[in-house]
Each structure stands twice: as C-alpha cells, then as structure tokens.
Amino acid sequence: HETQTTCWDHPKMTDLFQSLADLNNVRFSAYRTAIKIRRLQKALCLDLLDLNTTSEVFKQHKLSQNDQLIGVQDVISCLTTIYSGLEEKHKDMVNVPLCVDMCLNWLLNVYDSGRTGKIRVQSLKIGLMSLSKGLLEEKYRYLFKEVAGPTEMCDQRQLGLLLHDAIQIPRQLGEVAAFGGSNIEPSVRSCFQQNHNKPEITVKQFIDWMRLEPQSMVWLPVLHRVAAAETAKHQAKCNICKECPIVGFRYRSLKHFNYDVCQSCFFSGRTAKGHKLHYPMVEYCIPTTSGEDVRDFTKVLKNKFRSKKYFAKHPRLGYLPVQTVLEGDNLET
Fold it and tell me: A Gene Ontology biological process annotation (predicted)?
C-alpha cells in the first residue's frame, strides 16, 4: 500500500523463494532441483497429504473434465477441503488460510504465470499429485490414470500433456535446462520407442519406462530419495567435516576403505586429501545392510588394483540419476 505497487507473491512465498537460493551451491542439477522442491513441498504442507486423499478431493469437487479451465475461486474451494482435512490430522502443523494462500500462489506461479485467473484441471491435479506423499510407483500409477483414456491406455499426446504439466514444476524454480528444457518431445519418443512404437502404452509400460528415470522426469524419483534420506542416520563419520553419525545421504567411496562423505560436503564438491572427485562412490539414502557392506568391500578391493587410467576411462557415478534414456546430452559432465 505504501508504494502502491502490485505484487503477485505472498510475502511468505517471497521469503521461501529467497531461501531456495542457498541451494544453488548443490552441484548436481537433479539433486539441487529435488531439494528445492522438497523445501517447497514442506512449506506447503503437501508432504502430509497422501495420494488417496488428493484423488478423493478431486472426485468430491467433480473435477473430472481434465481439459476444462478452473477459476481461482474453485481452486480455493478445492484447496480449502484439502487443508481442512490435513488440519484435523496435524493440528499444530497446518494453518489453513496460510496454506491455501501459499498453495494457490504456487499453483498460479507454475501454471498461470500470466495471471489469467484460470488453470487447466489437469494441471491442478498433476501439480498437487506430484508433491503429495506416497510410494513412488503408486504416484506414477495415479499420474498415468489422470491422463489415460477410458481404455486405461495412453497415447503420445496424452503422455505429452502429462510430461508438459510435470516439467513446469522445476521450470518455475529456474531449473528446467538440465531436464531437456521445456521440450518433452524426446521423452515421449523414448517411451514409445521402448514399447516398439505401438500407438498406446499401458500403465505397466509407463512405470517400466519411468524406472529408467527419463530426463524430463528424473527430479521426481530424486525427490523421493531426498525425502527418504532426510531422517536417515548412518553409523559412519564424514572424512571431510567429521560429522558423525552422518544424517541424510551417505556417500561411500568404492576406491578407499572407510571413506565416507556427508551430503553437504558431497554436494558442494569438497574432498579430502587423496580422494578425487571422479573416483567411484555409492549413495545410500537409508542405512546400509551387512550385505551391502560386504558387496562394497569387495568392490573397493577390486578398485585398489586399478590404475588412474582405468577411472578416467570408466567413470562410475553411482550417485547420479540413471544415465538418461536416449535423450539430450548427459545430465552432468
């Protein structure tokens, strides 16, 4: 009011986006994006919302016509139902008016940046489902079901719409370049090529393809790994900053015995003497089992006898998303 300027963002949303800038020192784009989305997910309390409830609320509000446009009032009424339900279960954590404002603000930033006051029903669903909590493959199932036709099959156009709506989430955070930009064409093509270019794919074929972590969607499985790692405690000490136990992701060297790195040292690229960034490492988002310990031990033994030339030729990055399927350039060089 004092400056008589219009601002599209809630002050709390502005604070949140400023705080995300701290994460720009994370070197790997899929992790940087996923950690930003995780912070956003928690700020919007969507980490408390399970997929089933999300789906039920859409039915309750009769949001079945995916290509229809829905106005701000209807979005607010849908979000109010969601957050009122969450408040009953998590009294101290959910402030309904604030959550509704923040979530509406986020949805409009992602799907209506020109502020026409309307977003597509499908965009609303994909945005909220992507950030709900649940098992990763369940989430893939729900997302597929939203775009599939009455035969529960999905053609190239429908898959394109799903990927287009999903990629807007990293795009809004300024993180779209690493995921093939806004062009989801190569991803659609790779999915259908994997299924012998049949005109339609089934949910199982979609999930099998998603397991390969395609470039445009890789931030979603990484988001789930980030969430799983948050509370993990590893009985190991970081060789760089000496944190013990390591909390979060643990990176274990497959070149040196007893060489572990915590996630903050790893993401910012710090190393200890004698350990090079290109040496093979393996990532754990939950504590290791004795079987994994033995397996890693034998790998270190083998690597002990390998030359520097071998590692230059065979960089084994066990912590990056799976090498993307036939699309774009390598995500990380």
Answer: synaptic signaling
